[in-house]
Amino acid sequence: MTPLAVPAPTSGSDDRTAAAAAPRADCIADSAGGLTFDVLDHGAHDPAHLVLIDRAGGEEVRLPLAPAGDGRLRASLPIGVGLPEGRWDAYAQVSGEQPVRLMPGVNDLRSLVDRAPSGSRGHVAVRIPYATKHGNLTVRSWLRTPHAEAGELLIADGALTVHGRLYGTAFAAGARAELRSREAAGQVRTGELSADGSAFTLRIGYADLDAGRWDVWLRPAGPQGSEVRVARLLDDVADKKPIFTYPAARVSAAGRELTASPYYTADNDLSVLVAAA
């Protein structure tokens, strides 16, 4: 594999010239949540790696690129290989050369849709490759111990009902749901929670909330037990916030007129926004 250098744009060209020459990686997700990356093989024999670099802390995960036939090199990221939660930028690096940023090719993420991990490891690991706003390949990783997966959201009669499933732990007597205010530290409201095995239903009455942003949590073992953030992770959408949008409901409470709507944060966690009407 020859060095993966990207030529600098010539006079009169723009960044699209370099982008067109950048190496691309096709990504395939398996049903367990692992990823396989295929990169074009340029024919030399120097060892090569696919390098994932944590955008926040700079930590690296190096995956060997091995010949896979059809002029491709392949690297595997099985779900058992640790990848801490964050955004991991993808590079290809030939031995002795500088890493080169990868661009996304074809992503086959069908196996991630409606994925149902066993939770037997006590945590849920999720990896979703996506294209950044600059057209580069990045992997969004989550590692939740335990995890509460939000499913269907229903909005009716001034309330939000969330159907979901708990992974990595079990509900016990005294289990509760909490809405925690971001603006007023320590301000907590409780929601109506019912559980059937690992499945749960949570009802949030909008009239019980003051204006502000409220984060949704579960305490499966009661007020003194573990805290589990409710989020939607088990699908193929890396950033839910601009994709999953919900209507605002108008409610009256204590002489106030409010609007309230659920939304997903930049980390795909479930929250509720309440504002003066």
From TrEMBL:
Q: What's the domain of life for this entry?
A: Bacteria
Instruction: Give the protein's recorded name.
Output: Transferase
The scientific name of the source species is Streptomyces xanthii
